[in-house]
From TrEMBL:
Residues 867-886 are annotated as: Disordered. Gene3D superfamilies: Multidrug efflux transporter AcrB pore domain, Multidrug efflux transporter AcrB pore domain like, Multidrug efflux transporter AcrB TolC docking domain, DN and DC subdomains, Multidrug efflux transporter AcrB transmembrane domain. It is found in: Cell inner membrane. Keywords: Cell inner membrane, Cell membrane, Membrane, Transmembrane, Transmembrane helix, Transport. GO terms for molecular function: xenobiotic transmembrane transporter activity. The keyword Cell inner membrane applies. This is Efflux pump membrane transporter BepE. It is a multi-pass membrane protein. The keyword Cell membrane applies. Its main location: membrane.
Length: 1035
């Protein structure tokens, strides 16, 4: 049956059908979200809690731990990590499987948080615990400045809160809007401890007086029913309960006596309308500024959000006070739009080349226009189905269209060529079309189905890499199917209408074409014929040497296989995002003023570079999870558009500035590119997590982290690794002699409460101002908390009413501790990072599926990889043998040596350790475990090593082989290649080049992107390398 005969006889119907496909695609293209890559960032919910005055350790133990215990195990959760900082803030990020409804995830987290509320400290409960859904990325940042200095940052920050923040938060797709700067207004009560002690008052007396006199009272109504019949009016009663101004707060009565003496708040404190938080200072090009950062919701269109923010700010600008302006310099979506524009430009160039080639070979406008009409119908029509599938317009789907152009034009060319051939045999155009379609309909359908069968299986890949491949493959498959439909409907109908018999007189357009291009076409045809004859003769001669051809073919296959294992590869190519991230880490305990001065110096260096557009800096902000620390600073170095930089790449700018920053000797400085995919980390490269799974303490965690990074950094393939984790932050410790305090009549809780009130930013209650609710904060004035000796001068009231200084029963000493505490999946952890663009070797050989091999070393520590489920090898080999296998696979293998004593890890004490390190690599998952080597008995027969998290045993055999239970294979233990080779890393693939996917089994409790895990099943998982530092007999 000739399928196309119906459309050949009804060309209008064929034209209308194709027009509908084209129009539907056009409408869909304007309604699809636009992004750089498909949605590959798992949705997350951020839980925020405050505990004013508490240090990082206290927050981690009293706030983070209860919340994590309650949240853990929530449906569809992948992992969670928390960051507790010394300024009293906790951020707990719960990450869910890709595809999880973010609204539902937020509800689930909020429910679990509510269940844990009763276990949290009272101050935390009073301030509230929030759960917000957003992506870990800043979509756009609006900087507000006062160029002439008319207004300070406190005023600008509050203006942004009142008039800008809420407006931006209402934009569709926005997840959260934050103010980076002083924060909102707060009534600051700066106490004078000496004046309080002189009057026999404590900080609690002040807080109680504020609570009693700054309260919103509901005082009722006069004349409300039921009442007497002669009552004429019903009147609401008002009273000034909540205070509104510093003067009103100063008038609060703290104490009075029978003689009429009154002590007011203004007598013992300085009261002002200040800022809620002084922990971060923002600058733009080294000038004070306030940053309004916008984060998008999962699945939102970042480009549309940026456009809406620009539009909203132009509207709001009309109402700005004089000398308040805004600038938008940090906008990653600009680079995204530039990348998409480049792909669209490539798409148009491809269309132009197709037009040129088709016209060059067919040489008549009638024959050329038929396949050229097929291109826009197939390409544009694809958008309809992409919209129905929930896809976006991104670089990968556009790349798919670029590849599809050459495919979709082929079917129409086949139709036209066969119609022309039949016309040459003497048939009329219509009869020639009938005959041609009888001949080629089957092949066209077969080709479309074959190509679809090649690409569509990629749509069923799971995980992160699957999301990248999926839209690329589906785009090609859909466009191919539409092309086949078009070749069976519109192309034959147009062929019957437009093509002419070879004996017919040429039309005017044909005559002009032949006159202009006839001579060129003649030379081209003669050259092409000679080339074709020469090629045919050469093939004939080669066929007489079949053996040599097979050898060459085998060599090519071997070379391809060899290159697959040695050409650098990775997740996605490193790209110029038009900005860099720099950081400064001063010695622990450095003041915010010192940190700001250092960052200003770095910014001055950056602004002199010809490729730098500006700097957006945040002193007091740490790159480690974007938490607060007075000794750290973070800067976004904004680059000029690439076309304006005269070929200066972002890497070159980073290298130039890195050398200049190195001249700052009193601080650790660095400058890094952003991650290739927005939201997958803060910097490029990879991250690692070190977990303390046995609660050995921060000192042991620090030793293991530093030793691991020290030895790993000696591998040239990795380059410098770093971690901002430090347990040597200068701190003070107050030791209370409880027996002596009891003798003096002082309750220990009263002493702790006094220190919290005087030294911490103690939250009392709220007040109303400018239609908003702000906090009342109480703290000792600056001159009374500037030296360690000031702690001893704080007074506590005893049971007899006497004011007792803390120095009489407490001793203040210097100590050290962590400035920040991070936790990962319920365990204290520390993260580290490496530079982007690192090269990681292919391991110690073997098939990529052999990630269950054990790697042994001498001394007390070794690294091995846990066994894999029995079906893993089949899954991996099938993946590696398919076109899905990319050119880059990150493999970490080889020996691991124990840190030497100079590094702070004594071999005899290492048997006490149980530390787990997770290499969070952006593009693939692998779990590795560090165990004590126990060389003196590891190779003896009968010794078994049991993994603590699963039912797998590895039996050590003489000769260095390990038999793994449940697997019919023997894994050889690798020998130590070098005493400083921490992980046996070799030269190999670059994780900044191409897509990649690995399969590996990981310990329960870890996961990413919807992985199902048990001892018999484990899906592809592209998240993290993990390693377990295990020592001790019980390990």
């Amino acid at each position: 049956m000739n399928i196309s005969k119906f459309f050949i006889d009804r060309p209008i119907f064929a034209g209308v059908l194709s027009a509908l496909i084209l129009l539907a695609g056009l409408v869909a293209s304007f309604n699809m979200p636009v992004s750089e890559y498909p949605q590959v960032i798992p949705p997350s919910v951020v839980v925020h809690a405050q505990y004013p005055g508490a240090n990082a350790k206290t927050i981690a133990e009293t706030v983070a731990a209860p919340l994590e215990q309650s949240v853990n195990g929530i449906e569809d959760m992948l992992y969670m990590d928390s960051k507790a900082s010394g300024d009293g803030h906790l951020y707990l990020t719960v990450t869910f499987k890709l595809g999880t409804d973010p609204d539902r995830a937020q509800q689930l987290v909020q429910t679990r948080v509510s269940q844990a509320q009763a276990r949290l400290p009272e101050d935390v409960q009073r301030l509230g615990v929030t759960a917000v859904k957003n992506l870990p990325m800043i979509t756009i940042a609006v900087h507000m400045v006062s160029p002439k200095g008319t207004y300070d940052n406190n005023y600008i920050s509050n203006y942004a809160i009142l008039h800008v923040k809420d407006r931006l938060a209402r934009i569709t797709g926005v997840g959260d809007v934050a103010i980076w700067g002083p924060g909102g207004y707060a009534m600051r009560v700066w106490l004078d401890p000496a004046a309080l002690a002189e009057r026999g008052l404590s900080a609690n007396d002040v807080a109680d007086a504020i609570r009693r006199q700054n309260i919103q009272a509901a005082v009722g109504t006069i004349g409300s029913a039921p009442t007497s019949a002669d009552t004429a009016f019903q009147l609401n009663v008002n009273a000034d309960g909540r205070l509104k101004s510093p003067e009103e707060f100063k008038a609060i009565v703290i104490k009075s006596d029978a003689r009429g003496a009154i002590t007011r708040l203004g007598d013992v404190a300085r009261v002002e309308l200040g800022a809620e938080d002084y922990g971060i200072r923002a600058t733009l090009d080294n000038s004070p500024a306030v940053a309004v950062t916008v984060q998008e919701s999962p699945g939102a269109n970042s480009l549309q959000i940026s456009r809406d923010v620009h539009k909203a700010m132009k509207e709001l600008e009309n109402d700005f006070p004089e000398d308040v302006v805004y600038r938008i310099v940090y906008e990653p979506s600009r680079a995204v739009q530039s990348g998409i524009d480049a792909v669209i430009e490539t798409l148009l160039e491809s269309v132009a080349l197709v037009v040129l080639v088709v016209f060059l070979f067919l040489q008549t406008w009638r024959a050329s226009i038929i396949p050229l009409i097929a291109v826009p119908i197939s390409i544009v029509g694809t958008f309809t189905f992409l919209l129905l599938a929930g896809y976006s317009i991104n670089t990968l789907s556009l790349f798919g269209l670029v590849v599809a152009i050459g495919i979709v034009v082929d079917d129409a060319i086949v139709v036209v060529e066969n119609v022309e051939r039949n016309i040459a045999r003497g048939l009329s155009p219509r009869e020639a079309t009938y005959q041609a379609m009888r001949e080629v309909s089957g092949p066209i359908i077969a080709i479309a189905l074959t190509l679809s069968a090649v690409f569509l299986p990629l749509a069923f890949l799971s995980g992160l890499t699957g999301e990248f491949y999926k839209q690329f493959a589906v785009t090609i498959a859909i466009s191919t199917l539409i092309s086949a439909v078009n070749s069976l409907t519109l192309s034959p109908a147009l062929s019957a209408l437009l093509l002419k018999g070879h004996g017919d007189a040429p039309d005017a357009v044909t005559r002009v074409t032949q006159k202009v291009f006839g001579r060129f076409f003649g030379r081209f045809n003669r050259t092409f014929d000679r080339t074709s004859e020469a090629y045919g003769g050469g093939v004939g001669r080669l066929l007489r040497h079949k053996g040599a051809l097979l050898v060459v073919y085998a060599l090519l296959l071997g070379g391809t296989w060899w290159l697959t294992g040695h050409v650098p590869g990775g997740f996605v190519p490193a790209q110029d995002k038009e900005y860099l991230v720099s950081l400064a880490q001063l010695p622990e305990g450095s003041t915010l003023d010192r940190t700001e001065a250092t960052m200003n110096k770095m910014n001055a260096m950056a602004l002199k570079h010809p490729a730098v557009l500006g700097t957006s800096s945040y002193s007091g902000l740490s790159i480690n999870g974007v938490t607060k620390s007075s000794s750290t600073a973070l800067t976004f170095v904004l680059l000029k558009p690439f076309k304006e930089r005269k070929g200066i790449s972002a890497d070159q700018v980073a290298a130039d500035l890195g050398r200049e920053f190195g001249s700052i000797g009193h601080a650790f400085t660095g400058i890094f590119p952003p991650p290739p995919v927005y939201g997958l980390g803060t910097l490029g490269g990879f991250k690692l997590q070190i977990e303390d799974r046995a609660d050995l303490g921060y000192d042991e965690l620090y030793k293991a982290t530093q030793a691991f990074i020290k030895k790993a950094s000696e591998a040239p393939e990795l380059g410098p690794l770093f971690s901002t984790y430090n347990v040597n932050a200068p701190q003070l410790k107050v030791d209370i002699d409880r027996a002596k305090a009891q003798q003096l009549g002082v309750n220990t809780p009263a002493a702790f409460s006094a220190m919290q009130s005087f030294l911490g930013s103690y939250y009392v209650n709220d007040f109303n101002f400018l239609g908003r609710v702000y906090q009342v904060r109480m703290q000792a004035d600056g001159q009374f908390r500037s030296k360690p000796e000031d702690i001893g001068q704080l007074h506590v009231r005893s049971e007899s009413g006497q004011m007792v200084p803390l120095a009489s029963f407490a001793k203040v000493s210097q100590t050290y501790g962590p400035d920040q505490v991070t936790r990962y999946n319920g365990f204290t952890s520390r993260r580290g990072a490496a530079r982007a663009g690192l090269l990681v070797g292919p391991g110690n050989g073997g098939h990529p599926a052999d990630c269950g091999c054990n790697l042994a070393t001498r001394d007390d520590v070794r690294m091995d990889r846990p066994d894999l489920p029995a079906d893993h090898c089949r899954q991996q080999r099938s993946l590696d043998s398919s076109p899905l296998r990319s050119l880059g696979v990150l493999r970490i293998g080889g020996p691991v040596r124990e840190p030497d004593a100079a590094a702070g890890d004594h071999p005899h004490h290492s048997d006490e350790h149980l530390l787990r390190a997770a290499w969070c690599v952006a593009h693939e998952g692998r779990q590795q475990h560090l165990h004590p080597d126990r060389t003196h008995r590891a190779c003896r027969p009968g010794v078994e090593e049991r993994h603590p998290d699963r039912r797998v045993r590895a039996r050590a055999r003489d000769g260095g082989d390990v038999h793994v239970e449940g697997r019919d294979r023997v894994l050889s233990l690798a020998a130590a290649a070098h005493p400083d080779d921490v992980a046996g890393l070799h030269h190999g693939r670059d994780p900044t080049r191409s897509f990649d996917r690995r399969r590996c089994r990981n310990a329960p409790g870890d996961g990413h992107l919807g992985v199902l895990r048990n001892d018999r099943r484990h899906a592809v998982r592209p998240l993290s390398h993990t390693a377990l530092l295990r020592t001790g007999p019980g390990a």
